[in-house]
Amino acid sequence: MHCYCDSKKEFDNCCKPYLNNMLSPSTPKQLMRSRYSAYVLGDGEYIVKTTAKEQRYEDDIDLIKEYSQSVTWLGLEVVHAKESIVEFKAYYRDTDGIKIQHEKSNFIKEDGIWFYKDGLLLNSKIERNMPCPCKSGKKYKKCCG
Predict the structure, then answer these.
(1) Alpha carbon distance 25, 28 (integer Å)
(2) What is the pTM of this model?
(3) Best-predicted range by mean pLDDT (53-62, 99-108, 130-139)
(4) Closest Cα to residue 35, out of 88, 100, 110, 99?
(5) Could you tell me the end-to-end alpha-carbon distance of the chain, in angstroms, rounded to an integer?
(6) Helices (H), 1-145
(7) Is the pLDDT of residue 128 over 90?
(8) Stretch 103-114: mean pLDDT
(9) Which of 3, 51, 59, 74 fits 14 for a cystine, CB–CB 3.0-4.6 Å?
(10) What pLDDT band is residue 10 in, cutting at 50, 70 and 90?
(11) What pLDDT does residue 56 have?
């Protein structure tokens, strides 16, 4: 099975070792991809565990699970990754249609382990002529738009 993070790798050789605590991501990009997979799977524990200590709240686990399961995750696009910043677009469908979470995320390294620190949400929309995020192979305007 291909990984949820759209890396084109098999899940067992991509995000699964991180989600199962067998390995720690060695780059912010790997961490961001594994966190996306955790959202797809509703793994709130992983999301909280991989958040910087000053931003970490155990009460968020159930909220993350509830949110993750209230949407259908469609795919991930890494726009740019450099040093401790990763810009990405996560596509999902909710009751109002297809949406994008476009974010520039900041990561920090604590005791040799990468953690999500915070992020800046960017205003972004799905353009009519881009491929539909539902992966139908059609343009957005002819599919879900």
Answers:
(1) 7
(2) 0.93
(3) 99-108
(4) 88
(5) 28
(6) 16-19, 28-41, 44-49, 60-70
(7) no
(8) 97
(9) 3
(10) very high
(11) 92
Backbone angles phi, psi at 54, to 5 degrees: -70, -15
Residue 77: name the closest of 7, 14, 134, 131 by CA. Answer: 7
Whole-Å CA distances, 30 to 44, 47, 63: 18, 13, 24
Helix (H) or strand (E) holding 120: strand 113-122
Instruction: Identify the CA nearest to 47 among candidates 73, 71, 65.
Output: 65
Residue with more model confidence, 117 or 125: 117
Task: Please name the residue that has the structure tokens 């192979």.
Answer: 137
Structure tokens that stand for 125 in this block: 């929309």
Residue 143 has a pLDDT of 87
Q: How far apart are CA 130 and CA 128, in angstroms?
A: 6
Structure tokens belonging to residue 76: 């991930």
> What's the rounded Cα separation, in Å, for the pair 1 and 7?
12
- DSSP codes joined into one string, 70-84: HSEEEEEEEEEEETT
Tokens found for residue 10: 């098999």
As a whole number of angstroms, the distance between CA 68 and CA 11 comes to 19
Q: What are phi and psi of 30, to 5 degrees?
A: -60, -40
**For position 85, what pLDDT does the model report?**
98
